Amino acid sequence: MSKSVYVTATNRDFLNIFKTLVDTKNVKDTNYAKAVVDNSESIMKHLAELEELSKPSPEFIAIAMKAQEMITAGDQEGLKKYEEENKDVVEARKAQLDDVNKRLDEVASIELLLLEEETLPKDLDADQLASLKFIIKK
Predict the structure, then answer these.
(1) pLDDT category, 128, cuts 50, 70, 90?
(2) 59: pLDDT strictly greater than 90
(3) Could you tell me the CA-to-CA distances from 38 to 2, 27, 78, 84, 131 in Å, in that order?
(4) By the 8 A CB rule, do 11 and 47 touch?
(5) Strand partners, 5
(6) DSSP for 99-112?
């Protein structure tokens, strides 16, 4: 059974760990699967506020959809005018994303289960292994 420890990393690192756990969730090893489920739940709970902060406003979604229609139609002039008319909403979205990126770089500690090296999927690529390094038992 894996033991749990407090892992200190940036929120961006936790997001990368979460993505790798989701990508490898189909591994047929009970110990690894338990760690995937437990760690995913812990990370999701920790990142829930950031996820909520990253959601675009309904106004921005409507503007983006209309802008996409103009791009598809090749209406560059109309698009430029439309973006200028909605500059406040676009700028608010940029500021929102800047805030989310700053929060992703903040350091936090979460209690997670360590992974035993022998339970790791054999087909992890270098990026996946790098993201899991925080939770591999040494």
Answers:
(1) very high
(2) yes
(3) 11, 15, 50, 46, 17
(4) yes
(5) 112
(6) HHHHHHTSEEEEEE
- CB within 8 A of 21, min separation 6: which ones? 36, 39, 40, 43, 132
The encoded tokens of residue 132 equal 């899991």
The rounded distance, in Å, linking the Cα atoms of 77 and 12 is 37
Taking the model in full, what pTM does it have? 0.84
Mean pLDDT of 100-112: 97
> CA 14 to CA 32: how far, in whole Å?
17
Residue at token pair 């106004």: 59
Which two structure tokens, joined as six digits, stand for 100? Answer: 């989310």
Helix (H, G, I), strand (E, B) or coil at 107: strand
Stretch (H or E) spanning 36: helix 30-54
Strands 4-10 and 107-113: antiparallel
| Residue among 129, 121, 59 nearest 96 (CA) | 59
* Other Cβ atoms within 10 Å of 80 Cβ, number: 11
- State the Cα–Cα distance between residues 117 and 111, nearest whole angstrom: 19
